[in-house]
Every structure is written in C-alpha cells, then in structure tokens.
Specification:
Elements: H1 2-11, H2 16-26, H3 29-56, E1 58-65, E2 90-96, H4 120-141, H5 146-180, H6 186-212, H7 216-226, H8 228-244, H9 247-281, H10 288-300, H11 304-317, H12 322-334, H13 338-351, H14 355-370, H15 374-387, H16 392-404, H17 408-423, H18 427-445
Antiparallel strand pairs: 1-2
Amino acid sequence: MIFDNTKLLLGLLYRPVSAMGRIVDEGHWLYAAIVVAALSMIFHSAITSHIYNSYQAVYRELPATPPPTTLATHPPVPYEDEEFEQAPPTPHFTYDRLPLPLVGNHGWWFVSFEAPSFATVVMGIAVLYVPFLILLVTMAGTNASFGVMLRRDYGPLLTCALMAWAASHLPFAVVGIVLGSVGVGARTSLAIWAASALCFGLLMAVGLRMLFGTQYQKALLLVAVGALAFSVQSKLFASVSPFLFSPFLLFYAFSMFRGDIGDIGLSFRQRQGFRRSMEAATINPRDASAHYQLGLIYQYRRQYTEAISRFQHAIEIDNDETDAHFQLGRIAREQGRLQDAINHFGVVLEQDEKHSHSEIWREIGATYLAASMFNEARDALETFTSRREYDPEGLYYYGKTLEELGERVAAREVFDRCIEAVKTMPSYRYREQRKWDKLARERLAA
C-alpha cells in the first residue's frame, strides 16, 4: 500500500488529472493523513516558522520605566551624608504583528503561521475544508442534496484533498530545507508558502472537475472560497486543541456519528470495488460492456484520453456497440473535432436513429451548429424538438440556429419555449438545466 500510494502522490506532480483519478480508485486516506501530518511539521520548521518569527510574533523591547518609589525601594537613610543607590529601570518586552506584503494587516484575518500540532492540518481538512467544499458544490448547482453528496463523495474528496496538500507542499518543503542551509529570509519563505497554497488550489480544482464534472473556472472559484475554512481552522483549533483529542470527546463523537462515518466509508469502498470489478471484467476479450462502463467513469471524470481508449476498445470488440459510438461523438464535439463527431454520430444513426431517446439528433444539430452549417443543424434540431418538445438544451440550440439563419421571430419563440421548459421542470432537475434558461434570456436580451 505504501509504495502504490507514494506513486500516486508523486504522480500528482507531473500528471495531475490521471493521478487524481487513480487516487479515487486506489488511494488510501490513512496513508495520505499520515503524510500530511508529518509534512506539516516539516513545512513549518523549514518555511512558515520564518514567517511567524518575522511577521506574526516580532520580539520587541518597550522603553524601560523606572520602578515606583516605595519604602521597599527607598529605605530610610540612617545618616545624612550616606548616598542611596537607586534600582535600575525595569525592562518590558512584547510581541508585535507586522503588516504582510501586498495585503497588509487585513491578511491576518485569513492566515496564521503559528506552529501546528501533529494533526492540526489533517483535522482542518477533514472537519472543515472538505465538508465546506461539498456544501459549496451543492450550492453551485447539483441534482443531489448536501447530505447525499456528503455520504457519497466525502471519502473520495478527502483522499484527494489530503494527497493534493501533500503533493503541493512536498517540493516546497524540500526547497525550504535546502535554502535553510544558506539562510532563507522571511519574504522568500512567504513566497514559497504562497506558491504551495496556489499549487494546492490548482490540484483541488482538478479534483472538483474530476469528481463533480465542474468547469475549471467554477472549480477555481469554489476552491478559492473554500480556502476560508483554513482561516477558521487557525482560530478554532487554537482555542479547542487542548480538548480536541480528549479520549472521552473522541469516544462520544464516534458513538454519535459512527453510523454516518460507516456510510461514508462504505460508499468509498463500494466505489473503489466497482472500479476494480470493471477492470477485472475487461480481462474477458469479448466483454465490450465492461470497457464501455469504464469509459463512462472516465468520461464523467473528464479524463477523456482514458475514456476514448475504453470506448474504442468496446468498438473493436463489438462494432455494434452503439453507446460507445455515441459517447465518442460527444467527446469529439466537446473537444472541437467536429468531423470525427459527425462520423461517429453517422454510425449511430445507421444503427438506431432513435438512440438515447432521440438525443442523437440533438447532438448532430449541436455539432452542425458549431461547424456553422446552419441549414443542416436546423433539419436535425427540428427532428429532435418535434420528438422532445420540452428539452431545454435542444430548444436553445434550435433557437440559436434560427437566429443565425436570420429567423429572429421564430428564434424568439423557441427561446421563450426554452425558458418555460426550465421553469416547469421538477426541482431536482432545475439546477442542472437552469444554465439553458440563463443562455436563452441572454439571447433574448441581445
């Protein structure tokens, strides 16, 4: 386990997308937690301790004040000609917090460079950061509630977050140790810390895109907002850390939440087990379905290279695997390979022109629209919307095609139908489809 997980950890440094997918399938959170706990202590010793001593806890001496005059300090003089030697002034010391570069004193609202305990970073990621990130993803628009997503995705996201933290801080900790031999300044340490935080955010954006299908721009925004959990961590754990690892508190916490913890662990194990069973099924040289199912997993994670390979294997085994052709066409359209998409969709039409509830016509129409072949796009989308009158995506493409052809009145009517279709959808589908409502309103306003 240690060797395999170390390979996954190092793989994040040069192949983050592929490595993140393998972490979900094969990674172990306990290994990642131990590495993060040990690395956080090393990183503080090599990097953040210099920032702490130079910015957060600057040792300063206050002006000395003379001691108060009392009978104890000024005893009565027994003889008039005897001189009394007064006690020296008492020195005072304090710790100052200096403004940070670029952000000034406002930066202290969000960061702290105090020495962590052995498990502070692990607890911050597990208790605050990962649940907060799942909440943000839920609010950004998904078909599932927060509770469902927490049980389903907490384990994979926690493992990815711990691995990402370790991978993003490991090289900079090594740099800090090397520079420490010649002396590393506070500004250099601050730059190294900022670089490690930026790398962690980028890796987490890859993880969100893989697990939830989030676009990179939205994933980066969610990760940036989710970083607020670390500011809460530095303030919360400073006050409760003496009690956090009390055996009695841990026992009662486990007794109260062991059902939820068990559900989370079971969900994670089942996901990894399903992936392994699919891999085992591909040993059968005639099982095209196993390759197709693995391709769907990779496609959902936006690992398109692996997905294309699996779908092509399915076609090589069975050329009548219509679903594989359909998904290859969708990937090709998304990647801008429009001719390849048309070729795959053509095969699907030959095998089943009503494939996937006639969604094949919507995909063909969208591909022709992207290729600026508007007459062909209109024919395909007319066929689709005649069969699926309340599909917002198809209506939006159809309206945009009519707009490009100069049929503005008809286009406005179709955009209105698109907005109405989204408004009348059940709540569990509204979040998924509301982007078409937004796009249709933008076209109407234009």
